[in-house]
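To: structure desk
From: M.T.
Subject: fold request, one chain
Message: Could you run this one when you get a chance? Sequence is below, nothing fancy, just the single chain.
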Amino acid sequence: MQPSPVLVRIGPIAIHWYGVLIVTGAMLAAHIASKLSSRNGHDPEISWNLLLVCLISGVIGARIYHVISAWEYYRAHLNEVFGLQMSGFGIYGAVIGGTIGLWLFTKFSKLRFLEWADYAAPGLLLAQAIGRWGNFFNQELYGPPTKLPWGIYIAPENRLAGFEAFDYFHPTFLYESVLDFGGFLILFYLARNWRKGRLYGDIFFLYCLIYPVIRFFIEFFRPDAWKIGDVPTAQWISLAAIALSTTVLFVRHKLRRPNMIYVPGTPWRPPEIKEQGNAAVLSKDAEPPAPDHSAESEGQGRAKEG
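Reply: Done. Structure tokens follow.
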């Protein structure tokens, strides 16, 4: 049975499975971020405000990445470049766009970027695991033909050129979904329980290591991959991300400066706010007591009486 990409139609409006799954994953990610941040004294509402920013910037980044990867097609169909069809999104573009949105939000809200990237990272992998099922309903992101019992049927109109004679294919989306969920469990456990030796940003940089490893191997099961020099572009990006995140983790733990050390249970505040708070406390403590005029008034009163 061929799945339908449309969940329900309300008059002329079609609600796609892909869109529902993306929004569901994003809301779960925001919920997880709100729970993790509230454990450290933050207002849970911050995560929900952040969700809107990251969702918009992530969708824009995902669309740009996809258009670039399929430029030969979109060059001849420019009217479709700006369409938000429920297909045609690149995960790496979504991650880059969402990260930019997160950085802008934390900058203008005077929050620490790496602290909030740590709160967002576990839920992001969970959202990716859920969103990948949109590929199942769209009959995309499948691998080479297979006779394995878990192979999925792909309708003839959705088969890649050269695979028209085959019916069943590797469910590449499923492989990535399962691995993403495993990565989520690891990051979520660490985000809740790792305290000793942890630095702000460690969870985020581990995400930048775990997902590229997953994606590197998944690309071997993508016959439609966008390639540079006969190597899938996503593998080039994955290798760069693995090298960079590994280096950053190593260098930061070598430096281990006081302002990098994760402090559980308390929200991070910018240095100027801390200094202002300390100055206010010091000025209050140093303020001299008000003069006591009661004795003087009492003496004057007695003088008048006398």
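Reply (cont.): Residues 277-282, 302-306 have pLDDT under 50 and may be disordered. Let me know if you need anything else for the meeting.
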